[in-house]
Structures are given as C-alpha cells and as structure tokens.
Structure of Adenine DNA glycosylase:
Amino acid sequence: MQKSPLHPFSATIMAWYAEHQRELPWRQTRDPYAIWLSEIILQQTRVAQGLPYYERLLAAFPTVRDLAEAPEANLLRLWQGLGYYSRARNLQKAAQMIMRDFAGVFPQTYDEIIRLPGVGPYTAAAIASFAFNEAKAVVDGNVFRVLSRVFAVETDIASSAARGIFTELAQSLIPASDPAGFNQAIMEFGALQCTPSPDCSVCPLAIFCQSNLTKTVANFPVKSKKTQVKAIQMDYLIIEQKGHLLVRERVGNGIWKGLWEFYLLEDQADWLPFSRQALKSPPVHLLSHRKITCDAWYVQVPDNFALAIPEGYVWMSPSDFESKGKSVLLLNLITDNLECPILQDISPTYL
DNA sequence: AATGCGGGGAG
DNA sequence: CTCCCAGCATT
C-alpha cells in the first residue's frame, strides 16, 4: 500500500513520543465522553491539577446521561477549586444537548463536536482525533510553542491571524496514518521537552530546529500582550441566626458565577445593629486578571430579631452550604477562621 | 480585535 | 515577581 511520506518533523516527534509519553488515564480509553471530559478539564489547566478532578468527575458521572441529569450545584461542587467555572456549566449544557439532539450518542465528527458549548477548535480537534481518528490538527499552547520554534514562525500568537496560520502548518504535518498519535505527540513534546525554558541539548529536533540553529529559541513564540491585573477589595459578613447562614449564589456574568458566598458588603451604607467580630483575613487572592484582597466579620443575629433578607440571599444550614461550590478565596477564609464554631461545620472535606 | 474568566506551578 | 497551562465565550 502506498503511504504518503512522513515529514521529518512528524517522524521525529512520534518516535520521541513512543519513548517518552506519560501514562494518563484519558489515554487508556476511546470513549468520546471520557476524552471530552478530560479535554474540558485540561483547558488552561495543567495535567497535575486536572487529574484528580477527572477521576472524581468520571466516577460521579460515568455517562453523558448521568452528567445531563445531575443537579448543576453538584457538578459545581465537584468542580470547586479548578477555576473557569463556565466550563462546568457548559459541560452540562452540552451533555443535555447530546441527550436531546443526538439521542444520547456522542457526536462523531469535528463539525458536529465543535457545536457543543464549551468546545472550540482545539477541543473539537482533540476529541475528533483521539476518539475517532479524524485527521484534524490540534493547536494549543504547546503547538504554538513547538511549531514557532522549529519553523521560526514569527507570527504573534496573540494575534487573530495566528490560529489560522498555525492550524494550516500543523495540518500540513499531520500524518493520515495516525492523526491521533501525531496530535498526542506534539502536545506531549511541548509539555515535556519543548517547554518554556527548554533543554535543547537533549532535543531530537535540535539539528533542524530553525530557532535553535540561530540561537533564538528564547524569542519564540512571539507573544505581544500581557493581561493587566486589577486590584479588587471584597468584604464579607458572615451572618448567622439560629444556626443558619445568610448566603447567596453568585449570578450575572462576572467571576465565580454559580458559586455560593456569604453576605458581600457592596458599600459603606451596609450595616447591622449588632457588633461585628473581625475575622482573620485570607491571603491576597491572585488570579490571572485580578488581585483580590478580602476582609471579613462575623455577626450573630439574636433569634428574635426579624432581619430583612437582602435581595438574592437565603438562609442555609452549614451542611447545605458545605455542599455548594465555593471560591478558593472563600474556602481560605473559612479554613483560616476555624475557631469560629459555625465555620467548622462548613469546612470542606475535599477541595 | 479585546477582554473576562481561576487557580496553581515553574523558574 | 513573571509566565503560562490540552481555550472559549462574549462584546
């Protein structure tokens, strides 16, 4: 049988992959559901951080139907600590779409898969290739880095044109004989060998890597913009009455949508006619785009006082509140103040 | 074309 | 500290 010639780049990284690949659970399956779950978890997330979440979520929701029918709050509780919580909400929306529009059968082509909410060009290519061996090249952060260095591509990866250019290049290198293997190989190569600070002395591509040959590896990939960090102050009142807490689910499209929190002080006009006990402030919470400082107080409301419940808030038992997803900032606030009795009851059993 | 969205690990 | 991670949705 006639085979199309393998580009030296492709042959080299696939040989390297055969030797150096990690054993990861989502590589032991062809189940598109499990592969999809792993890919959503791994968006902008390191393997080491996502691994325990993958095991937990797959155990809790073994099938698309289980995921589609689960209460969203349970999913967000399991997602707690992983960040980018819209991933979890879109995951369930997509599961419901698969049940409704695909009769519960996971879509099998790139063009169908990419219609699922939370699935973009990278994730659709990953699922289509890994589960169905469709020859769609993946382009993620690893691929940007590897290809930009090896072929000295000076396109700014932050530009809108970058995806198209790198997709075309990757697509020209993907072998029809093993698209899944190539996609796995190039990403693993970026993750383990062609890292942000690589050791080019042990690289199998060093002899024809264009940036290595010109000693300009550190100049690639070209990336222009950096996200600016805004400072935010968030003050919480932990309000208790008759063993219950005044809490709410965050709504709107801002940070931590779908997660739960204590009473958030919106302005200085907020007050209660009771003494506040200052709590230990959690550490400054650093995110990619936010620097959040937080102060908090504990307020015990007498049993017989009829407190007007603010819009959006509800009284909730500590055990119910523990079962809701919360931000890591709030979890830190809780675990740093366990001398406050009611906070012991909402201390998480797992992150 | 820009911006928002989480959290953590590596250097 | 800075960078960036198996990115995507929204504006």
Observations:
- Chain A has two domains: 8-219, 230-344.
